[in-house]
Design goal:
The protein is mainly alpha-helical and 255 residues long. The protein has helices spanning 2-21, 46-50, 53-67, 80-102, 106-132, 134-160, 167-186, 194-212, 214-220, 227-248. The chain has a single domain (2-22, 38-248), classed as Rhopdopsin 7-helix transmembrane proteins (Up-down Bundle). Helix 6 (134-160) runs antiparallel to helix 7.
């Protein structure tokens, strides 16, 4: 156990240290330009905006699953809080991302990214509580949420001052998910739905690939759907995997 704790701690320090050592990462100007800019029913950038409904459905399903859970679905009643943070962040991200895609700019992107950090930190806290150390997770919950929000605030402040720096936000997004993967490896737990979490992480990785291939996917599909639109749908599928994990435990009541 001590070795696993040390490995996780060293990995966390390494991620933070790497971000500090790495030069500032500016957001590319083309990030705000998306391949599919078609309007539909008067809605600009319609598919990129409307595909966020998938996040709303997945997040709402997660919150409802928590509300209707049976005893044993969570190993500790306190775990409702980090899982609620995850799903609330997803629902809020559906609103923030829709707002952003209607007229993409950095001010609106702030409201897209902020709730995402709530979701990332909720997930890592839940996994810490379930598999690593319950008291540590409780102590870190609010500080982690604060760090997540601060990473987006710092990015936006740096953009406003002409020295854009994404490093803290990238650590929160990719570092937290990398630590989730490491926790699954170091702290296996039979019957806890690990396969759902692995599938969720795989879905998120695929979603990021689709995001990077926004224009090529749009071209490959004959301008039917872009990579960014598919990114929203696949990432929402990753959240649905977490919902399925919770529903598989101790038979959460049907929604």
């Amino acid at each position: 156990m001590a070795t696993r704790h040390a490995t996780l701690g060293a990995a966390t320090i390494a991620v933070i240290g790497f971000a500090i050592w790495w030069p500032p990462v500016a957001q590319p100007p083309e990030y705000l330009v998306f391949a599919d800019q078609r309007a539909l029913f008067g809605v600009p950038n319609a598919l990129d905006a409307m595909s966020n409904l998938a996040f709303a459905f997945a997040g709402a399903a997660g919150l409802l699953t928590l509300a209707r859970r049976r005893p044993g679905a969570l190993t500790d009643g306190w775990l409702v809080w980090p899982y609620a943070a995850l799903f609330t962040g997803v629902v809020a991200a559906s609103v923030g991302s829709t707002y952003f895609h209607l007229a993409p700019d950095n001010a609106r992107l702030f409201w897209d990214r902020l709730p995402m950090t709530v979701g990332f930190m909720g997930l890592i806290t839940a996994l810490l509580a379930e598999r690593v150390h319950r008291s540590l997770a409780r102590a870190l919950f609010v500080p982690l949420l604060t760090v997540g929000a601060a990473s987006v605030a710092y990015w936006y402040w740096s953009e406003r001052h002409g020295m854009g720096d994404l490093r803290p936000y990238l650590v929160v997004q990719f570092g937290s998910l990398a630590l989730v993967a490491l926790i699954l490896v170091l702290y296996p737990s039979a019957g806890s739905g690990s396969a759902y979490l692995v599938a969720g992480l795989a879905a998120y990785a695929a979603a990021k690939g689709l995001e990077l291939a926004d224009a090529p996917v749009f071209a490959a599909t004959g301008h039917m759907v872009s990579g960014h639109t598919l990114k929203h749908l696949v990432a929402a599928g990753g959240v649905a995997c977490v919902v399925a994990m919770l529903r598989s435990r101790a038979g959460a009541r049907r929604i």
